[in-house]
Amino acid sequence: MVAYKLDPDVLAKVAKEVVGLPLDGGELINRAIELLAAEYPDLIDPTPSRWVGSRAGGILGKVRFLYFSPREYIVIFGSPTGTQGFSGRYKRVQIHKFLLAGQIDSYDLESDDLVGTTLRPGEHACLEKGHARGLTIHPGSWHLEYGRGAVATTLPFAMVDTLLVSLEFESVRRSAVEFTKLVRRRLHR
Q1: Distances (CA, A) of 98 to 79, 114, 163
Q2: Helix, strand, coil fractions of the chain, as percent rounded to 5
Q3: Which of 14, 39, 137, 145 has its CA 20 to 30 A from that of 48?
Q4: Single pTM value for the model
């Protein structure tokens, strides 16, 4: 059995602790990063990295990379204006979302259930391996996203839409720079 370094229960605790903090001035995001760095000082750098534009599955937002390894990643993702699209389908990765602010509505693409689910601040949802969902991320929604499994298999989905559909080369370049910083930090530990 693979040992993971990040614990979803700890991430849920951090998300619940920052619910209600203001988005203006970055207080909510900065406090979430501080708490994560306190829980995982060898993994997460408390100094803020830059935001990078991301488009995957039609979902357009801003992402801040916090940790990346071959088996796990954690980012903060959101949109000030809202967005919607496809979650992706990952056969080798489980994706957890811990909502910090806003609302995310989703539905399972293959189930017979015709009613979606709503994620509210402080709540947690998990996209199991091999499943796919339709998502509406409401304006002002921000979440911790934690992936566990064969993380490299998520990169094509994360980059192809940005690169080939949006032709947004600068965001891909910035993402590569941020990934490189995280890998270097990990190698120096």
Answers
A1: 15, 24, 27
A2: 35, 35, 35
A3: 137
A4: 0.85
